[in-house]
Amino acid sequence: MSQQAVTGYPRNHVQVLPERIGAVANSDIPGHYPGEDHTWNLERFKKNMNLRVDRLTPSRIEFDLIGIDASIANALRRIVIAEVPTVAIENVYVYNNTSIIQDEVLAHRLGLVPIKVDPRKVKWKPQPTPDLAETANDENTIVFGLTVTCSRRPNVRRDETDPEKLYENANVYSSEIKWQHKGRQYKHLTLPRPLDVPDDGEEHLPQDGEFDEPPKPVLDDILLAKMRPGQQLNLLLYCIKGIGKTHAKWSPVATASYRLLPHIEITDDIPPEHALKFQQCFPPGVVELEHDERTGENTRVVVANPRLDTVSREVLRHDEFKDKVRLSRIRDHFIYSIESTGAYKPEELFPEAIKVMQDKISAVESCLKKAFPNHVPRSD
């Protein structure tokens, strides 16, 4: 059986010979058929590789990555989740905690609070050594303080029962976590010189003319603890750089996933009397009905936007459609969805993952050159 396909983008337009029509369900992948040559070719990869941003919000990005192998697509997804570094609370020093929540539980809750600070401006903290027990400094550690005391508000009605109205600081939120400047940290983080830091005479201006925001929690309304009059918290929080593979608190994303682009192929005419039913078998926007000159009505079925399809295969439940449609997916067209926790802008996460992968490849290449010095490929 011979097959032919149109190559190049868009990949969802595929020509299929008549002998391929009629399958009820299939595992064929459009654009890739037996007998085709899919060996690696750099020039072909450059031609077919494409990235297109479909939606961008302050916390989420959705984009299409086209023309790469599934192994690379999944490797980048895993790197985004587990190996792109961020800054998170690692050490909690409790000077006073008379609230109802235990020290270790409170420390765990604090560690999961996402911190808004550019990880690229914070150095990795080295592990302590026997001759150097503490390695924290103003370049690798961000310090926060949390000092809150609960008290009863004056002049409150005697019959009032709402704790928020009765007490001051009844609920302790992440907005109470305050950054404490250390050393010359304002220079490393591109911040204005604090008023309590003497001028050292060196010019300190950002390259782009704008200073960054001081380190703080990404969200101000994360509930940390509940307190009542007489209870208080006095904590010191040390933040360091880490990766999600070590602990989930360092993961820069709330979710990072991808799916393959659905491919819906109408292999035979849909009768006008069944057009509306066929359209209703798919999510809204996937199939549209256009004007048909033969009937004079909107009965011509057209696949408008296959990316909205959830691949429910509902259409195959109906006998009148089983031999008229083929459902598959395009194996090298990945629809990514990445939601940032706030340390990075969503559009920065994927490039950071690519940088991590490049570092991994460079490390492997260096090891191979040392292990096989006589088999180093020529640079030309």
TrEMBL record:
Keywords: DNA-directed RNA polymerase, Nucleus, Transcription
GO terms, biological process: DNA-templated transcription
A Pfam family matched in the record: RNA_pol_A_bac
InterPro entries membership: DNA-dir_RNA_pol_30-40kDasu_CS (IPR001514), DNA-dir_RNA_pol_insert (IPR011262), DNA-dir_RNA_pol_RpoA/D/Rpb3 (IPR011263), RBP11-like (IPR036603), RNAP_Rpo3/Rpb3/RPAC1 (IPR022842), RNAPI/III_AC40 (IPR033901), RNApol_insert_sf (IPR036643), Rpo3/RPB3_RNA_Pol_subunit (IPR050518)
GO cellular component: nuclear DNA-directed RNA polymerase complex; RNA polymerase I complex; RNA polymerase III complex
Domain of life: Eukaryota
Listed SMART domains: RPOLD (SM00662)
Keyword Transcription regulation: no
SUPFAM superfamilies, per database record: Insert subdomain of RNA polymerase alpha subunit, RBP11-like subunits of RNA polymerase
Annotated DNA-directed RNA polymerase RpoA/D/Rpb3-type domain residues: 60-367
GO molecular function list: DNA binding; DNA-directed RNA polymerase activity; protein dimerization activity
PANTHER family to which the protein is assigned, alphabetical: DNA-DIRECTED RNA POLYMERASE (PTHR11800), DNA-DIRECTED RNA POLYMERASES I AND III SUBUNIT RPAC1 (PTHR11800:SF13)
Similarity remark: Belongs to the archaeal Rpo3/eukaryotic RPB3 RNA polymerase subunit family.
Listed name of the protein: DNA-directed RNA polymerases I and III subunit RPAC1
Organism (species): Naganishia liquefaciens
Lineage per the UniProt record: Eukaryota, Fungi, Dikarya, Basidiomycota, Agaricomycotina
